[in-house]
Design brief:
- With 497 residues, the protein is α/β, with parallel strands linked by helices.
- The protein is 38% helix and 20% strand.
- It contains 16 helices and 21 strands.
- It has helices spanning 6-12, 53-68, 77-93, 95-106, 110-131, 167-180, 195-206, 221-230, 243-255, 280-292, 312-322, 344-359, 393-396, 412-420, 435-444, 481-484, and strands at 19-21, 24-26, 33-37, 44-49, 138-139, 146-154, 157-161, 184-188, 214-216, 236-240, 260-264, 270-273, 304-308, 363-366, 370-371, 379-380, 383-386, 403-409, 427-431, 449-452, 485-493.
- The strands form six sheets. The protein has a seven-stranded mixed β-sheet, with helices on both faces.
- The chain starts with 5 loop residues before the first helix and ends with a strand.
- The model has no long low-confidence stretch (mean pLDDT 97).
């Protein structure tokens, strides 16, 4: 079979930018739109509905009505499972369309949209579909005079706000457990990559999800996002994005109805390599691949690489030799491994951090420049700094671009201290051939996930989330049900015979 002609398909694509509320595509209440251009080459993709307070009100009202009449929550778990399984199957059937939308929308290589984003989205929905009729309620060990039943019930209307770097996957991590548990959802995608969200909602309807259960309102964070987070009839907010905005989510909850808020926020993950690890080339190539994947636009990217001083020169040499393998190229070409940054603002941000690194005295080993400017898109070379101090701006702040900072350390105690000297605590890794050291350091690192002699390996069965200013709560695994369900106790008095 011939490979798809992605540029031709992209030229023929006409995305629908309207919101999806109560089972229908709609323009925004006031008719406002915003232009969505592709970061690949600047082409106009769609005029997208600019949702505001009135649109959020309509979506929440539809979600509340669907929840209260129990058109979804009232279905037996096995029935919800079948609908969600069809949803997952139809996501896979629309694989090419969804992958192309994702690539055009946020600039990632088409090969990864096809091989990672679409399958992971479908697997997440399918996994929660399978889980929903396998979660049992409890009976408390009370005295014989009472029967205390502990049941999980859906929380109600769940607001979901997701970022632009993995639009489908991040949405699925929250949609899966929320829908499986019987909630209704209002999703606000990022204005930088909104197109797959509305298409997913259409696919869910086609799979049999009742109207009103899954609504999508695109728009800006300070308009649609704020209205959703402040809404008095939203019972919970699941947010993934920056720590700055995560603080606002908590503020909005306190200003409204004290809705529960679960934040998955930024990261500045430490990748710690000791001199007792024999496979130095594997560690260095893993660091490069993980850092430059998705253009470095990943909250768990290993942007702080801590290397023992005895092996640091060789490590940096290997990473620098790997960098040309990640040269930015057209994301619509199947061989491309590093695509475009999401927009001009992110491009300016990344270039600003590169200049800050230079200004603070870090040594630029490779990269550091904007490239492919003639394309009309936003591309930056994979960039490596050596001689970074943990106090430098590039080591403290989340860059969200293909920029690696190498920090040298002398011993285990210093490595742990540097790794933990961060406001973030999302992910980390330890590279050592000594089991005791690997285990000891992993226990001491303050991060939601710590890899040993690997990085960014995961599965839907394990929780994902961070500590400190990387957020609270967990996506993925059965633990995600804790965010979208309430525990209810029903106490039955048993009279003596």
């Amino acid at each position: 079979m011939n490979a798809p002609d992605w540029p031709a398909r992209a030229a023929a694509l006409r995305p629908d930018g309207r919101a999806l509320i109560d089972g229908e595509r709609r323009r925004s209440a006031g008719g406002a739109v915003f232009a969505k251009h592709s970061p690949i080459d600047g082409r106009l993709l769609a005029e997208v509905a600019r949702g505001g307070v009135a649109d959020i009100d309509a979506a929440v009202a539809a979600a509340r009505a669907a929840f209260e009449d129990r058109r979804w929550a009232g279905k037996p778990p096995a029935a919800r499972k079948k609908v969600l399984q069809r949803f997952a199957d139809k996501i896979l059937a629309a694989r090419d369309e969804l992958a192309l939308l994702e690539t055009l929308d946020m600039g990632k290589p088409i090969q990864y949209a096809l091989a990672v984003d679409v399958p992971a989205t479908a697997r997440t929905i399918a996994w929660y579909a399978e889980a929903v009729d396998k979660i049992y309620d409890e009976i408390a060990p009370t005295a014989d005079t009472a029967l205390a039943l502990i049941a999980r019930e859906p929380v109600g209307v769940v607001g979901v706000i997701v970022p632009w770097n993995y639009p489908m996957i991040m949405a699925a991590w929250k949609l899966g457990p929320a829908l499986a548990a019987g909630n209704s959802v209002v999703l606000k995608p990022s204005e930088k990559s909104p197109l797959t969200a509305m298409r997913l909602a259409e696919i869910a309807l086609d799979a049999g999800l009742p109207p009103g259960v899954f609504n999508v309102v695109p728009g800006y964070g300070h308009e649609a996002g704020e209205a959703l987070a402040l809404h008095m009839d939203v019972d919970a907010i699941g947010f993934t994005g920056s720590t700055r905005t995560g603080r606002r989510m908590l503020e909005y909850a306190s200003r409204s109805n004290l809705k529960r808020v679960f934040n998955e926020l930024g990261g500045k993950s430490a990748f710690v390599v000791f001199d007792d690890f024999a496979e130095l080339e594997r560690a260095a190539k893993t660091a490069a691949g993980s850092m430059f994947f998705n253009q470095g636009e990943s909250c768990n990217a290993p942007s702080r690489v801590l290397v023992h001083e005895a092996i640091a020169d060789r490590f940096v040499e290997i990473v620098a030799a790997e960098a040309p393998n990640y040269a930015p190229a057209d994301p619509l070409q199947p061989s491309t491994v590093l695509g475009a940054l999401v927009d001009d603002a992110q491009l300016a941000t990344v270039l600003g951090y590169i200049e800050a690194g230079r200004g603070d005295g870090a040594r630029l080993v490779c990269g550091g420049r904007r490239v492919r400017e003639d394309s009309g898109g936003f591309y930056v070379e994979p960039t490596v700094f050596d001689g970074v101090a943990n106090e430098m701006k590039i080591a403290r702040e989340e860059i969200f671009g293909p920029v690696m900072s190498v920090i040298r350390f002398r011993d285990e105690a210093e490595a742990v201290a540097i790794a933990n000297a961060s406001n973030y605590g999302l992910q980390a890794s330890v590279w050592s051939d000594h089991l005791s050291r690997a285990h000891r350091v992993a226990r001491r690192l303050r991060a939601g996930t710590v890899h040993v002699n690997s990085y960014d390996e995961d599965d839907i069965t394990v929780p994902f989330g961070g500590v400190k200013q990387s957020g609270n709560g967990r996506d993925k695994s059965l633990h995600a049900f804790d965010k979208v369900t309430e525990l209810k106790t029903t106490w039955l008095r048993i009279d003596a015979a």
